[in-house]
Amino acid sequence: MSKFAPLTIFVILAWFLFDGLGRDTKKLPSPLVGKPFPNLMVEDFKTAESYSTHSLLKDQVSLVNMWASWCVTCRAEHQMLMEIAKTNSVQMVGVNYKDTRKEGQVFLNRLGNPYDKIIFDESGKLGLELGVYATPETFVVDGQGIIRDKHIGELTPSIWKERFLPLIQQLKISAKTNTPS
Fold this sequence. Notes:
The chain has a seven-stranded mixed beta sheet with strand order 2-1-5-4-3-6-7. The N and C termini lie far apart (56 Å). The protein is built from six helices and seven strands. By secondary structure, it is of the alpha/beta class.
């Protein structure tokens, strides 16, 4: 039995390595997809006024993007967000995550502001509720406040065109015809 132990261990390790080769490490299943966006009282980035996330997301499809001024990947992604904002195809909600207003504003002044509304999440409470562990993370939320998709990492043109935009268009059509998506 002991002479087969190294072979058995090798076969098991080889199987785990082979199994992991084809997996997309950026596409992690989110337990929140299909569930309501957390309803929290949040603070507006510009005015510091409080409002609920449900009131912000109600009745329109939204792209919710977690970002921070200290995030290198957020800088790389920002031009893509500016392009999406020009299309007016979706409500753009930014969540300034574990940042300061001052640094966040400098970031937006330099790169532009693609967001229709920005939530200030200095303590990371909303991020915690969303299961965010890295920035950027982007969510598609339907008009009923249900999370329909989540992407971890930089939002690229191909992800936007092949995954998010068709979903957003489908959600808008479903909302107009009152059919569940």
